Known about the structure:
Largest sheet: 5 strands, parallel
Strand order of the largest sheet: 3-2-1-4-5
CATH superfamily of the largest domain: HUPs
Number of strands: 14
Radius of gyration: 25 Å
Shape: elongated
CATH architecture of the largest domain: 3-Layer(aba) Sandwich
Number of helices: 14
Strand content: 15-25%
CATH class of the largest domain: Alpha Beta
CATH topology of the largest domain: Rossmann fold
Structural class: alpha/beta
Amino acid sequence: MKKVVLAFSGGxxxxxxxxxxxxxxGYDVISVTVDTGGFTKEGLIEIEKRAKSLGVTxxxxxxxxxxxxxxxxxxxxxxxxxxxxxYPLSVGAERVAQAIEVTKVAKKERADAVAHGSTGAGNDQxxxxxxxxxxxxxxxxxxxxRDLGLSREEETGWLREKGFDVQAExxxxxINEGLWGITIGGKQTHDSWDFPPDKVFKHTKSVESVxxxxxxxxxxxxxxxxxxxxxxxxxxxxxxxxxxxxxxSYGIGRGVHVGDTILGIKxxxxxxxxxxxxxxxxxxxxxxxxxxxxxxxxxxxxGQVYGDMLHEGLxxxxxxxxxxxxxxxxxxxxxxxxxVRLSPGNFIVTGTESSYSLMKSDLATYGEVQKLWDGxxxxxxxxxxxxxxxxxxxxxxxRWL
Length: 401
């Protein structure tokens, strides 16, 4: 019998796939759950039980949290990468990591095919498809949800007809949770004016329920990545986890992202990412202190390009390695401390310091005094600096008045 390795989350879509691949397509199904930081130990045990109850022949649970942080999240932080200036790319990187791990299992098990449970309308199908085409070109790709074009209600009905239970909340929402945040799709997210209820959020309190005083958190960075919180030495993974808990308790981290999907339609998700939002904001402010104007301009530009390509399933394009090299080079001096003040529902970066600071108050203070030039230098600079606009004004005399 042919073998297929299925990327399995335990949710509605992959549960449907596990049964359909076995009963309708005749595969021996091997399920793989890659934990990218969103599951508890108990949760992973339940997912394995779920997989086996659906009839898979073998189940693999893989801890991919450190891999995702080292390979992907680290560059999202260093690149200040936010999709649409708000969304910290909580899913795109995870899909690439999951595809890598599923391919490893497929090769080890000598499987004939790989499978995913993405629909034909979203970005995940592209991410998985491209990754598998690069990593496993010799394997057949099977995509039941996309091929059948079923709605979540139809999937639920089919599974129940086959004798499998589906939780009601699973039917309403597609929720993806990982170290780098939670994304929520379904129901209210399909209406650009609507918003899901509080019950769908996990890491963030509603602002109305927060009863905490203001507090400050001090983040320490070394070469662009977090290494300490309030003086406590932490791994990058643990720093994100701690911030998710601390910042989320202040009702900070929820957001809405409307953007252009890979396929060209508008897509909308709700997300909660308290740790990522704070880390990127703090990192950006530290960069403003230590990088030159041109360094920041080009690094921010390439960081955005990098984030967009990662989000759009183009991680394996060789230009991504070139961009990573530039980002890494820029981060050699992004070392220092950032102070962040948390208030219910809001935060502000209140201070930055670094031994690489380019803010030299002993030489010049903005709007006050300076030692690097005198008044005559400034007058001459202003005269020359305005020449292009002056020439234009001489030709277009009535343009401005």
